[in-house]
Amino acid sequence: xxxxxxxxxxxxxxxxxxxxxxxxxxxxxxxxxxxxxxxxxxxxxxxxxxxxxxxxxxxxxxxxxxxxxxxxxxxxxxxxxxxxxxxxxxxxxxxxxxxxxxxxxxxxxxxxxxxxxxxxxxxxxxxxxxxxxxxxxxxxxxxxxxxxxxxxxxxxxxxxxxxxxx
Length: 166
Description:
Blueprint: H1 6-10, E1 16-23, H2 28-37, H3 44-52, H4 63-66, E2 68-73, E3 77-84, E4 107-116, E5 119-128, H5 131-165
Helix pairs in contact: 2-5
């Protein structure tokens, strides 16, 4: 029987999901440490996208600067979360606490990293709180999904490079 992941516990129901994985030649401990110290702004593409989203407030942004850590099981898994009306250009997404109820008119995103020997995987899940939010989010997701996936792929590579360099 497969163990339930932390993201399954935090967000078992969701409207959209996206998964990515990469091979890593480092121990799970080094890979997990690289996740914790990852710089989201290492790539100019990610810097640009975060700046457009209003999430870039300093030169270096780590995962815990932009997202709240809602659960972790070192060195196996970490789950981050954020919430807001993402489809609204004026939205400034906010980190959320583990037991905080989702606000009306919002989407909540959960993002995990799972570390296994030789592999780093990530899954993004988004849950909309109501039907109007779901409709707005799906239009937004149609356009933003390729960029969202690109951010995750670039970040996986940065984590891999840091873990293998350590």
